[in-house]
From TrEMBL:
Keywords: ATP-binding, Nucleotide-binding, Transport
Sequence ranges assigned to domain ABC transporter in this UniProt record: 19-260
Record protein name field: Urea ABC transporter ATP-binding protein UrtD
Keyword Cell membrane appears in the UniProt entry: no
Gene: urtD
Amino acid sequence: MNAAAAAAATPAARKDRLLEVSGVSVSFDGFKAINNLSFSIGKAELRAVIGPNGAGKTTFMDIVTGKTRPDEGRVIWGDRSISLLRMNEAKIAQAGVGRKFQRPTVFEDQSVFDNLLMALRNARSAWSVLFYRPTDEDRARVVTLAEEIGLDSQLARKSGELSHGQKQWLEIGMLLAQEPQLLLVDEPAAGMTPAEREHTTDILKEAAKTRAVVVVEHDMEFVRRLECKVTVLHEGSVLAEGSLDHVTKNEQVIEVYLGR
Ligand SMILES: Nc1ncnc2c1ncn2[C@@H]1O[C@H](COP(=O)(O)OP(=O)(O)O)[C@@H](O)[C@H]1O
Ligand SMILES: [Mg+2]
């Protein structure tokens, strides 16, 4: 790239960037779980984060969501370059960071429709929750969300009757109801059937068309199907980054996965 092209590309790249983590480290009892980590993601980007157990993948999500405070480094968010490190977990969620945990937290006694409606209501401000009456628009939005997660034929069903995979999708739908700009998903494929895994990749790919989505996943078939850039973490740092084919040819990555 020549100098003019570089100058033109830089501001655009900045503008499209949603999250920028740089030089972040955190130690637990002297053990560096995250070690000078740098990571950035664009506004409508899907990214897979892989790496062996203990690489720091979950801790990375804990830092972005404000659950864990790093010892050093920066975590910069959005067009106004706000530091997430000065915000608590609730404020970070309000700013547009949604996180899906492994265990679904759907209300089992409620229907799929009501779970989605509650998530939509909770996305509103505190005072409107008190006086909340669903409008036709809200009901239509619930149906759209159900379509996005492939549960539009299950709206009347009790959530407790859903399969493990369907509950996971419902929870993704409940997060999407809050319209996060960044969705963090930790090991979604665990416990899913192959067909459920396939459907989950479709949901995440679709969601990433209008927001940033970061997916931590061990299942390489799942990661391949995401068809996105991959970041390999190892010992709390980025070991390699690029297409899955690119990173799996990296000798350091091969060493880490196959042992020395
Ligand atoms: N709250 C904590 N207290 C102490 N050690 C922790 C804590 N969270 C994570 N760790 C340690 O940090 C390392 C990275 O963990 P984690 O982020 O869970 O890895 P991954 O998700 O990649 O498997 C592990 O060695 C883990 O034991
Ligand atoms: Mg983990």
